[in-house]
Design brief:
Blueprint lengths: L5 E3 L4 H12 L2 E7 L8 H4 L8 E8 L2 E6 L19 E4 L3 H12 L3 E7 L6 E6 L5 E6 L4
Parallel strand pairs: 1-4, 5-8
Antiparallel strand pairs: 2-3, 3-4, 6-7, 7-8
Organism: Pandoraea thiooxydans
Pfam families: Glyoxalase
Protein name: Glyoxalase/fosfomycin resistance/dioxygenase domain-containing protein
Length: 144
């Protein structure tokens, strides 16, 4: 069994793909646009004018696959109950200079929640929300 993060960018997925390519070296391994859906379901996938929006993309970041879309937001609920927001992606690295570079890249246009620094549990840990609202923890484990 595997679990993959699936990120929703509310129409900004192409921008996010380019951002993660630069910040994390993400490699697109599969990309499907709304116009690629079979003609009989295209209208169900996206409104008119959204044919170039991303229906699904898979990106490889290191050893991890991230899935993303321009489609429905991650907070969408059908029950009217509050949406779940308790998620953060954890980027685990081994080199402090690499951790700093990636942390700073993720922070560009975003918000630093906890500066990258030594803590009681890590020689290098910080928290940032990127420009798309995705929460990240950057860490070098105490004992790799």
């Amino acid at each position: 069994m595997q679990i993959f993060p699936y990120l929703f960018f509310d129409g900004r997925c192409d921008e996010a793909i380019e951002f993660y390519r630069g910040a994390l070296g993400a490699e697109v391994t599969m990309l499907m646009r709304m116009k690629d859906a079979p003609p009989d379901v295209q209208g169900q996938c996206a409104p008119a004018g959204a044919e170039e929006k991303v229906m699904h993309v898979t990106m490889r970041v290191g050893d991890t696959l991230l899935h993303a879309s321009d489609g429905a937001t991650g907070g969408m609920t059908f029950s009217g109950k509050p949406e779940f927001r308790g998620v953060s992606l954890s980027l685990t690295l081994s080199d402090p200079d690499d951790a700093r570079r990636r942390f700073d890249a993720l922070a560009a246009g975003g918000q630093v929640l906890m500066p990258l620094d030594k803590t009681f549990f890590s020689p290098c840990f910080g928290m940032v929300t990127d420009r798309f609202g995705v929460s990240w923890m950057v860490i070098i484990p105490e004992h790799p």
